[in-house]
């Protein structure tokens, strides 16, 4: 369906090396299995699963849709209202927190704009997807940054419950991007409440 979405695209850093150096079954069951558990927990914000969740276990969230291919996953808002566009950012924040605490790293971007998403047919096309892919590839290190369009969409003077902070995001070639970044350390604060 063609409409406005808040979209996050993230990659698992070091995954290609892991696949090349490890038995495939270990990658699928251990590394990727743990990531799926963590992603499920971050999405639904309830108990950490004991078993590796199936694709159907990710469905049913009224705010956030999800898709993945190998080491890349895509999260998107299901509606264009404050509550729905807040959820992909919060989900990425929880996921960043969990992966950082486990010594795993992800890198990505979040953008906003018109896209065509058909979850049932696995079709995901649009400028915000291209923008976050390009932002992710231009980044120097782990974390998730917002594009200008995502920053404009949340248009905040006070960041409150948004899991974002102003940050000079390190880019390749010794450049930086002044934008908002997902504040994964908020998980430490939220976990201690």
Summarize the structure in short.
This protein has helices at about 15-20, 25-45, 55-60, 80-100, 125-140, 150-155, 185-190; strands at about 1-10, 65-70, 70-75, 105-120, 125, 145, 165-170, 175-180.
Give average pLDDT, whole number. Answer: 85
Q: SSE order, as H and E?
A: EHHHEEHEEHEHEEH
Domain count: the total is: 1
Q: What is the alpha-carbon Rg in Å?
A: 16 Å
Major sheet description: 6 strands, mixed
Classification by helices and strands: alpha+beta
Unreliable residue stretches: 189-193
Q: What would CATH call the architecture?
A: 2-Layer Sandwich
Straight-line distance between termini:
39 Å
CATH topology term? Alpha-Beta Plaits
Helix content, binned percent: 25-40%
CATH superfamily: Nucleotide cyclase, GGDEF domain
- The tally of beta strands, per DSSP, is 8
Strand content: 25-35%
Instruction: Tell me the number of helical segments per DSSP (H or I, 4 or more residues long).
Output: 7
Overall 3D form: globular
Please identify the top-level CATH class.
Alpha Beta
Attribute tags:
alpha+beta; disordered C terminus; 193 residues; Alpha-Beta Plaits; globular; two-stranded antiparallel sheet; 8 strands
Produce the secondary structure layout.
Layout (H helix, E strand, L loop, with lengths): L1 E11 L2 H7 L2 H21 L10 H4 L5 E6 L2 E6 L4 H20 L4 E13 L4 E4 H12 L4 E4 L1 H7 L9 E8 L3 E8 L3 H6 L2
Parallel strand pairs: 4-6
Antiparallel strand pairs: 1-3, 1-4, 2-3, 4-5, 7-8
């Amino acid at each position: 369906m063609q409409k406005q979405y808040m979209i996050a695209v993230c990659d698992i850093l070091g995954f290609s090396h892991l696949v090349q150096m490890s038995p495939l079954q270990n990658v699928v069951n251990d590394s990727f299995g743990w990531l799926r558990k963590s992603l499920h927990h971050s999405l639904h914000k309830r108990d950490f699963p004991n078993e590796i969740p199936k694709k159907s276990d990710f469905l049913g969230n009224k705010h956030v849709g999800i898709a993945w291919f190998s080491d890349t996953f895509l999260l998107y808002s299901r509606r264009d209202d404050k509550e729905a566009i807040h959820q992909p950012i919060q989900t990425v924040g929880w996921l960043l927190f969990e992966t950082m605490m486990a010594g795993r790293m992800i890198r990505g971007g979040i953008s906003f704009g018109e896209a065509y998403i058909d979850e049932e047919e696995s079709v995901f096309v649009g400028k915000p997807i291209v923008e976050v892919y390009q932002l992710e590839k231009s980044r120097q290190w782990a974390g998730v940054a917002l594009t200008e369009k995502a920053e404009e969409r949340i248009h905040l003077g006070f960041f409150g419950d948004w899991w974002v902070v102003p940050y000079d995001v390190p880019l390749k070639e010794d450049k930086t991007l002044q934008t908002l970044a997902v504040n994964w350390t908020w998980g430490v604060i939220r976990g201690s409440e």
